[in-house]
Amino acid sequence: MNRRIASLLVRMCLLCFWLLKGSAAYAGEIVLTGVYNGKNIYIHNPINAGKSCITGIVLNGKVLPAPQSSAIDVDLSHLQMKDRVELRIIHSDDCRPKVINFTALVEKPDFQFAFSEVTAHSIEWVGKGENKESKYFVEVFRNNTWYTVATKQCTALNGNNKYSLPIVHEGNICKYRIKYYNMMTGESSYSRQMEFIPAAQKPVKKAILANKIEFTAETDYALLDNEYNVVLRGRGSIIDINNLKKGEYHLIFANQIEPLAKN
Q1: Residues forming a β-bridge with 52
Q2: What is the DSSP string of 42-97?
Q3: Quick one: 116 and 88 in the same domain?
Q4: Domain assignment of residue 78, yes or no
Q5: Which string of DSSP letters, residue by residue, matches 146-158?
Q6: What is the pLDDT of residue 78?
Q7: 134 and 175 both lie in a single domain
Q8: I want to staple 211 with a disulfide (CB 3.0 to 4.6 A). Which of 34, 66, 101, 242 is the partner?
Q9: Do the domain assignments include residue 21?
Q10: What SS3 class is residue 255?
Q11: Domain count, the chain
């Protein structure tokens, strides 16, 4: 009796093995992982002779209703921004669905302009958290419209990335801004608006004393460290640097960038 039972169990195991192997041969799976960026997932579901290619969709462990259409909109709007997402698309082995916007779940670094300034002959900026495939667009404001006058490919190195492009000013007061365009997500970020003012109207630096910097007139200013992080920003005719640590800095005022050392 024991031998008969053992033989029966072996046959049952072999049968289960071949059934599992056979079912695996007729099924495929696409797995998408990432974070919620405010966009749903769109899928093309081939239908042949009334049979759906997709046999099941599982979102974060929850089985969704079986698809009835060739165009599927997987609703993620119930999630919070940056929530983790795992989407499993189970399909027949003789077809393959297509995810239309497969980059929608890409986890994006938080990009920021660390610094931007226009000088008499150039426009300079520092970007942080870039995507390597992305670009910068230098724009000028003319006739109530922003026009692109130059482009720059991102280097996307870790930390702050500094850029400088030559520029020719037209008119008495010129307005500029820099657009960062993320090629992966299609989203744009903008620097602050910058104005170039002719030299005749500019305040100039009058003196640098032990604990203060003086200008001939009130002006917007900023002090940056060697990594182009802003350590001091304001407006006035005097900058108090008494609490500033010793070291090398960049002084920005009236469309000028000058090195500054505090000993």
Answers
A1: 47
A2: EEE--EETTEESEEEEEETTEEPPPP-SSEEEE--TTSPTT-EEEEEEEEETT---
A3: no
A4: yes
A5: EEEEEEEE----S
A6: 92
A7: yes
A8: 242
A9: no
A10: coil
A11: 3
Range of the domain at 139: 112-196
Residues 56 and 125 grouped into a single domain: no
Statement: residue 179 has pLDDT above 70: yes
**CA 79 to mean position of chain CA atoms:** 20
136 assigned to some structural domain: yes
Rounded Cα gap, residues 72 and 19, in angstroms: 31
Strand partners, 146: 141
Q: Which residue has the higher pLDDT, 37 or 206?
A: 37
Instruction: Identify the weakest region by mean pLDDT among 36-40, 60-64, 85-89.
Output: 36-40
Which residues, in sequence order, are CB contacts of 31 under 8 Å at separation 6+? 86, 87, 88, 89
Q: What is the mean pLDDT of residues 25-34?
A: 80
Q: What does pLDDT average to over the chain?
A: 83
pLDDT band at residue 200 using 50, 70 and 90 as cut-offs: low
Q: Is residue 193 a contact partner of residue 175, using CB atoms and an 8 Å limit?
A: yes
Q: How confident is the model at residue 8 (pLDDT cuts 50, 70, 90)?
A: very low
Closest by alpha carbon to 148, among 202, 188, 120, 100? 188
Q: What's 237's domain CATH number?
A: 2.60.40.10
Side chain identity at residue 151, one-letter code: T
Instruction: Kindly report the length of the chain.
Output: 263
Helical residues (DSSP H) of the chain, grouped into ranges: 2-25
Spell 156-184 as b/e; 16+ CB within 10 A means b: eeeebbebeeebebeeeebebbbbbbbee
Residue 247 structure tokens = 């070291």
SS3 label, residue 231:
strand
